[in-house]
Description:
The structure is a homodimer. Chain A is of the alpha/beta class.
Amino acid sequence: MEKLKIVKIGGNLIDDDQKLKDILQDFSNLNDKKILIHGGGKLASALSTQLGIVPKLHEGRRITDKESLKIVTMVYAGFINKSIVAYLQSFGDNALGLTGADLDMIRSHRRIVTNIDYGFVGDIDEVNGEALLNLMNSNVVPVFCALTHNGKGDLLNTNADTIASALAASLSAHFSVDLIYLFEKGGVLHKPDDDNSVIDNINLSTYEKLKKDGTISSGMIPKLDNAFTALKEGVSSVFVGASGISKERKGTILSLD
Amino acid sequence: MEKLKIVKIGGNLIDDDQKLKDILQDFSNLNDKKILIHGGGKLASALSTQLGIVPKLHEGRRITDKESLKIVTMVYAGFINKSIVAYLQSFGDNALGLTGADLDMIRSHRRIVTNIDYGFVGDIDEVNGEALLNLMNSNVVPVFCALTHNGKGDLLNTNADTIASALAASLSAHFSVDLIYLFEKGGVLHKPDDDNSVIDNINLSTYEKLKKDGTISSGMIPKLDNAFTALKEGVSSVFVGASGISKERKGTILSLD
């Protein structure tokens, strides 16, 4: 099967313009078919602060009210997404910036209210695999930001890691998909504060052990859960690390066994 | 030839959410192929003010420095563009939000500095007619905001009226194109302050007269210059008015003779 690389960039990799350009140049050097997904929470929080809007959090997770949705739409779909598209075009990639609303790419529903209402936050229902495949076959390079829609006129804030794994799973019937999560840490770490303690390989059984003994905790668990879900749904490989898209990679390789 | 409607919405039509929804519902009722272009200067100015950034103007025209470019990218390509896309999707149109950088749709160059440097403002060089035609043939509804790119990684702020007429001219070889400019005034007016003084028809020779006697001045001249350029380049009809996309229209019809 033809190869497809799905690359998610997040953390502080996109806050710094020169760092972002370097990563995009590396991404652009990939000769395989490819998709980019980006976050941008830090820039959104910075704009919130500038506008005097205090971010509302519940157990560390952002509550997206109407005003916050406007801010993330401006920052994710506007500033970050279109800056990336313009850079990639200058490097020769035929980039197209997308939210899940564009071409009805990703449908979601507003997260069910239990004890807490997260507001305009979406959990994914369906990826429009046919439309995505059409773009792939036209050599378009889709650039997704962390927004989906419910088909009723609402944009919904949606985790970029989850979008990456959902896109990867949806295309795994047509391509041999490598899913690459790039973030500021050097990979999954034995010791959270020591970037030199990268764990080279994790499989499903070692993952359970590392969770049980507390080595892997908090923010990494949803990311890795997404990764293992993608592997179970047919994605060929998952890599979590700080650098290396077309070049040598440093980080953690995940596998089912 | 197959019909194509190119609709530009601007002015205060997009500031009010309910007014915007009504216009988009009307646009959605069009059964012809169609393209939407939107402005958003007022919302961009409002965000500037909120952020404490004083808009820089020269003879009434905005100077787009780096910070202003970021603001218009957030407002035009982010908030307004994606809100429109989500609404149109909910009305059954397969909308796709675009800047000129996406799919390399519209190339421009930074405006030549003479006595004044307008900053990140682009004058259009070329529309990617082939990519646009592909979207038309796939029944996609493109939604363009007022940004283009120079192919070197820079987004450039570009007049939405000019984008509309450039797209119209580029597609006039393939479609019978109706170009529709909607804005807050009821059309081209005999008396600027009297919305009931709409001029029903203007051709190239009456246009020259109306400019000479001062009836048409200031802000309307670039808009109408764009319109007549489009007519000369093969666009079938141009309409300037306050309302009526799929329904009865009220406003001014422009023609060459």
